[in-house]
Amino acid sequence: MWEIFKEPNKRSKYVKKIVQMLNDSETLYYIHMAADRRNRYDREAMTNIFFFKMKMLIVTIILITTLNKLGLPDIIRWYDNGGMFPIKSAFLVGLSLVIIIIHILKVDDYCINNLVYNNDMNKKKKKTNEFINTIKKDPQNISYAFLRSTVKETFSKVIESLERMNFEMCQRYMSTECYDELQSQCKRYSFENIGRIIEELELIEAEPVGIIHHHDSYKDVVWFVIKYNAKDYVVDETDGEILFGSNKVKTFVQYWKFQKAEENTWLLSDVIAKGERDIKKCFNITEEF
Predict the structure, then answer these.
(1) Residue 141's closest CA among 205, 222, 225, 207?
(2) Beta pairing class for 221-236 and 242-262
(3) Which of the 8 DSSP states describes residue 42?
(4) Do 124 and 131 contact (CB within 8 A), yes or no?
(5) Which keywords appear in this protein's UniProt record, sorted alphabetically (predicted)?
(6) Phi and psi torsions of 234, nearest 5°
(7) Phi/psi-derived region of residue 48, left when phi > 0, alpha when psi is between -120 and 50, beta in every other case
(8) Read out DSSP for 147-186?
(9) Which of 89, 134, 157, 218 has the CB geometry, 3.0–4.6 Å to 74, for a possible disulfide?
(10) Nearest-angstrom CA–CA distance, 200 and 26
């Protein structure tokens, strides 16, 4: 929800002042400290990856050189003098070519991570959906029949409130703690003559990925992955200059936590952007009796 404020338009004459105002917030001070600590770990990880890739490159070069040294002379002799085709040597040279092609066309680390993430999330979606489809057959769990429609309705109201930077209109869709947190965030990021614009909104995905099911109470929790496309940016209303975000369509991925409040009521109780916190342990199926 607040990811765009990490993308200031550095060319804007207003941004330095606004960023300074944000930095004056004690809460943001600790957020920046955590971000700096995380960035330090990221730099250490990147250094380790760099040396690992250098080692892999050296090993690959040595392997290719060795394979060609073992195979090429026989192929050259066969080409010059004829005779029986050196299958073993051709195999070694072919293997070196395959290694080169794989090294050139190998998938980027980011793509690999995305593939692993998507595969893992797809499994969790499938298992969670199957579990929900099973338990909602019980009349006691009739609230699950309304869960998806509640999530989509809540999403619509939250985005509308986000653009207004005021969540009063969707207070009934949220827990008290979540409402207070989002309202405080709005106050933190609200400045005079500054407006937030959300355009070309498209909800791509709203799927459950984790659940805590209580058999004898109304304290069930369901985590949803929310994926949507939108133009999300902040402008100076006096001249229309973009201060934060981008007027290009981007994809946003967030995790929304819904808590059962009453028999047939679900309330939004937390919103976490992808990568903001490690909540993988929440993406499981848990039954409590």
Answers:
(1) 222
(2) antiparallel
(3) H
(4) no
(5) Membrane, Transmembrane, Transmembrane helix
(6) -115, 135
(7) alpha
(8) HHHHHHHHHHHHHHHHHHT--GGGGGGB-HHHHHHHHHHH
(9) 89
(10) 34
Cβ-count burial 59-91 (b if 16+ within 10 Å, e if not)? eeeeebeebbeebbebbeeeeeeeeeebeebee
Other residues' Cβ atoms within 10 Å of the Cβ of residue 35 = 13
DSSP 277: S
pTM assigned to the model:
0.68
Contact indicator for 1, 271 with CB cutoff of 8 Å? yes
Residue type, 38: R
The two three-digit tokens of residue 157, written as one number: 């109201």
Domain with CATH 3.10.450.50 in the chain: 116-288
Quick one: tokens of 67?
């394979």
- CA distance to 134, 237, 288, per residue, from 181 (Å): 34, 26, 28
> Residue 153 carries which side chain, given as an amino acid letter?
E
Q: What is the 3-state secondary structure (H, E, C) of 192-228?
A: CCEEEEEEEEEEEEEEEEEEEEECCCCCCEEEEEEEE
d(CA 81, CA 87): 16
Please give the class, per CATH, of domain 116-288: alpha beta
Side chain identity at 103, as an amino acid letter? H
